[in-house]
Amino acid sequence: MDMFNKVTAFLQQALETREPSINLLDSFVNHWKAITNYYIETTDESRPVKQTDIPWCLRQMLDILVYEEKQQGEETGPCMEYLLQHKLLETLCTLGKAQYPPGMSQQVMMFFSKVLSQIQKPVLHLINVYRPVQKLINLCGLPDSKTETEESQFLFAVCTRVRKDPYVLNYILEITKDSQKRCSSTSDEALEEGCSGASSPERAPSPPSPSSSAASSCSARSGAHPSSSPQTATGIIPVLMHLGKSQKSRVALRSMESLLLLVSLPQEDTGHLLAEGTPLCHLLAQRLTELYCLIPSSLSPADIHSYSGAQWRDHFTQDSPEESQSFPGSENLQGFFCFLDYCNELTKEAPRVLGVKMARAIHLQWLKGVIQPHLLQMSEAGILVHTALLSCSVRHIHSPALLEELVQFLLGSDTHCEKQQDTQTHILRYRLIEHCNHISDEISITTLRLFEELLQKPSKSILTNLVLRNLEKRSYRLPGSGVMDERHGVESDVLEESEELEEDPFFTDMYEDSGFGSQEPLLSLPSARERHNPRAHTQVADIVNSFLCLVPQEAKTSHLVQGAGYDTYVHDAHKLLKECIALSRDWNWPDSVKTTETHPATDFYEGHFLQILFDRIARILEQPYELNLQVTSVLSRLAVFPHPHLHEYLLDPYISLSPGARSLFSTLVRVIGELMQRIQHIHNVTDKLMMIRRQLMGLEEETLLDHVTLLKGVIVLEEFCKELAAIAFVKLPIEEQ
């Protein structure tokens, strides 16, 4: 820029003082003739262009054009007229293609780049500008190119110009009716077949790279078939995608930024043009699939889950992954997730029509074409690593369009109540939920993590599909078991269940033997008379203490350890509730439970997801500690969502359940019954529980003990009940307002 200012000042001075009669056009033409004369007079074909006067002449011509534009204002100056009428850019393009003298193509691209970036008037719509620009674009991205840096700068200048004048996009894309039809049919065929992308158009025939070989292998494993497509492709989109794979980080970064400039043009017609007239969607999905297939299948799920992610630009500015994220295969993992982040940004910034089509291509080529076959395979090792990768992918997907396709892929779009015998409506959904109950504990834990990640995404469809559609009619309640609460205008259970619980010897003994009355409770238990008041029986104290009193006193140990009380969960529950309220604010959930109509008793089915979770929680005393933690984590997240039916079903201990129905509380009551029988056969159970708790807290070294799985299960059960009590505590005041 300093050089330009100096030259401009020199020309200004020459015009005004030293040579008032200077003719810019003559000077411009002379510089051009100096370039053409070189080709007439010189016989040394090996002399590099930098050793000639050509670079200097091109710089002088550029400076004259820029200076002339400033002097002429709105009118086109004679030098620009000369450049257009005599097709100077066309000639330069031909000279650059010939690479004579050696290095000429770099000089031509630099000249084009500066003309497009420094000339302020719109010029790309002029035929004698956009035609040579098109030709120069098609000279970029060739195999073994030595000019990638100049190519990326030139393409960035083109895209920046298009960003400034969006109407010229059609000139740059070279779209005709025939080419648009061919692109559309090729893309549609590839998408319909769920192709993993190994057969998409390439810039030119070249030896297969490790990336394409891996993608081809991945395609074969997924059962994808190559789609028919041209062997070569031209145009700015394939060129940018090709340069985005460059080993030179600056070239790749500049190319991806250029593509983002085009994709983020806000006009819907430009979005439609890019979606239907170019192979953008197909090439984008192909690249994502290639990078996914480069991830080693030997990666540890723990390493995958520990990956914190990075923004796509960081991939090109960091020499290597952070030390904390460095492990065998970490570079491949980072490469994939950085490009996934790039896809996030593209689909978010693009016009809706383009964003939706890009997301759809990624769904069919990557999710359906590659991931689904791996999730449905029989190999436990394959299921494990690809479930972990999918879980990490869910965590890093933020684009609404991509998220919508992801949910459609994993869960489908069914909103009707589930039927217990229906296992084929959406086979992937069914198998994933079954994997939560897999014989391999590691697969179960990893799949539960996947669903926990899903429950943190801003999609109403996830909760509706997994849980809410089965609670809509509230058929888990005993018909006729509710009366109208005048204060809320909703149903409140009548007294039968409270009376039954008080008269049940097990329930009574559990309260008496727990010794809860000897402690200082957070909330006082209501009296029997208070329970007979429909307005009071759902008060905070009633529900909170129902969960706190579930575990018998001899099985409790948290009160013996400092800082392990119930109140430690209240802060976390309040924070989680705020997150869930913010997440669901625009989902138009009802504020109160739906009034149930009188209807004949129907079999209630909680749905496949809750069924598996309840089955898992029912076996909490028999399962590994890590698995129990993950099951309770998913259930806690479900319980904190502020939907009245979900709250009633998971957190109200006093609803009268219909025959055959179970709730979270009733499942826990059965677990407590089993617990009380089993701990009777363990000598010094409280001391052993205390030892296990201290070991889990890292206060003591682990030692071999009998019944260790049972004892750890008891500790998780106690903590889970405290967590549910805390969730009920922070939620109910909001609902009672």
From TrEMBL:
The FHF complex subunit HOOK-interacting protein C-terminal domain, residue ranges: 606-698
Residue stretches in coiled coil: none
Region (Disordered): 191-233
Family: Belongs to the FHIP family.
Pfam families tied to this protein: DUF5917, KELAA, RAI16-like
Segments of skewed composition (Low complexity): 211-224
Protein name: Family with sequence similarity 160 member B2
